[in-house]
Amino acid sequence: MKILFELFPIALFFLAYQWGGIYWATGSAIIASLAQILLFKFTRKPIDPMVWISFVLVTTFGGLTLWSKNHPINGIEPTVFIRWKPTVLYWIMSFLLWIFPLLKRGYPMEKIMSKQIQLPKPLWKIVNQAWAIFFLMMGAVNLYVAFHYPEATWVRFKLFGLMGLMIIFVIGQGIFLSKHLPK
């Protein structure tokens, strides 16, 4: 249920795009992200740091997209900003996964997953590095699709392609980790 709630802004972005185009989709994503934060606050549930980061990015990049539609910025096409948002999010996650161990703050993936699975430290290092590389590549793939294909293709890819890649990666990681779990 939590994952569906966290995917709400992305799903609404896709649906709003089908109905009214990129600017409606962008506005809808901003509103959905704000509603998500407010609902967490209202229910007094802790807000995951990645939800905050995503909210700040969608508000910033989405806001720039909407603002630059009527106030051109040096000839930059307005939708450039919203197309960059997933890449920036993925690259921030990749950076955090790399920097935490360097700062002796542990492996973020261990902190996230240790309640579900127990692994030795060397395996947590591998899992953490795999996710860091995966997020780096996801950001690059998003940029490629965003700027080499039509906008409508990118919007579909943003929901279905990136999610599909994530599911494939998680399954692959599950297969890898299953070999290292106690029988």
The gist of it:
The protein contains seven helices and no strands.
Name the features.
183 residues; globular; 7 helices; mainly alpha
Please explain how this structure is put together.
α2 packs antiparallel against α3 (49-70), α4 (80-102) runs antiparallel to α6 (121-148) and α6 runs antiparallel to α7 (151-178). With 183 residues, this protein is mainly alpha-helical. Helix content is 80%, strand content 0%. The mean pLDDT is 92.
Bulk shape: globular
**Mean model confidence by pLDDT:** 92
* Fraction of helical residues: over 70%
Individual helix count: 7
Question: How much strand?
Answer: under 5%
SSE topology sketch:
Layout: H1 2-20, H2 22-42, H3 49-70, H4 80-102, H5 108-113, H6 121-148, H7 151-178
Helix pairs in contact: 1-2, 1-7, 2-3, 3-4, 4-6, 6-7
